[in-house]
């Protein structure tokens, strides 16, 4: 699975957890846009150098906050029960996978928006690569003659935090309407939906 943390000393683990808790509390209180590494260090009661050694910039801290939920999500689609996990037809798994991504957007859109707009960006992130590979494999099973890598990019494009944030905040769509739009897109591709 992507995003497995390296082994670390007990004191480093304590400091990392203090930093992540402080960052999460700051985001919950003031929003993700206000996240500052210096303020996180102060709130976590660790040295600024400790924060910067672990997270060179804000984007690394943002990705670390998202990492635990990403690992749980990967576990669900790699080893979890169907239809998200193995055992369901490819079309059902694609449908469940995209809906699960929308569910994550609903709760994390501001944090994902910040992560997406960092110097490393969405397309260079490990989670994007894992999601893309997973979808490519399922699409190759569903439509063997198609360019599954291209289709995976095309299906992930509507799930950019930038677009979902715009749809929710500017267009006033509900998360159910975003899901319904994805279902329409899948139908246009000829992907069978049993849900």
From TrEMBL:
GO molecular function per UniProt: DNA-binding transcription factor activity; transcription cis-regulatory region binding
- Name all HTH tetR-type domain ranges: 13-73
- Residues within the DNA-binding region(s): 36-55
What Pfam families does UniProt report for this protein, alphabetically? Answer: TetR_N (PF00440)
Q: Print the keywords alphabetically.
A: DNA-binding
Coiled coil located at which positions? none
**Domain of life, per the record?**
Bacteria
Q: Reply yes or no: does the keyword Cell division apply.
A: no
Record flagged with keyword Transferase: no
Name used for this protein in its record = TetR/AcrR family transcriptional regulator
Query: Native species of this protein?
Result: Actinomadura syzygii
């Amino acid at each position: 699975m992507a995003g497995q943390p390296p082994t670390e000393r007990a004191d480093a683990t304590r400091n990392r957890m203090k930093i992540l808790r402080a960052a999460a509390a700051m985001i919950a209180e003031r929003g993700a846009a206000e996240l500052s590494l210096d303020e996180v260090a102060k709130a976590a009661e660790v040295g600024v150098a400790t924060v910067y050694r672990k997270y060179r910039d804000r984007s690394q801290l943002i990705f670390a906050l998202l990492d635990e939920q990403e690992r749980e999500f990967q576990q669900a689609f790699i080893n979890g029960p169907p239809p998200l996990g193995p055992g369901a037809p490819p079309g059902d798994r694609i449908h469940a996978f995209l809906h699960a991504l929308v569910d994550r957007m609903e709760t994390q859109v501001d944090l994902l928006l910040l992560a997406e707009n960092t110097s490393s960006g969405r397309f260079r992130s490990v989670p994007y690569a894992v999601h893309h590979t997973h979808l490519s494999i399922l699409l190759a099973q569903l439509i063997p003659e198609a360019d599954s890598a291209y289709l995976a990019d095309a299906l992930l494009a509507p799930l950019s935090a930038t677009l979902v944030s715009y749809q929710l905040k500017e267009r006033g769509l509900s998360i159910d309407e975003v899901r319904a739009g994805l279902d329409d897109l899948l139908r246009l591709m000829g992907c069978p939906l049993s849900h």
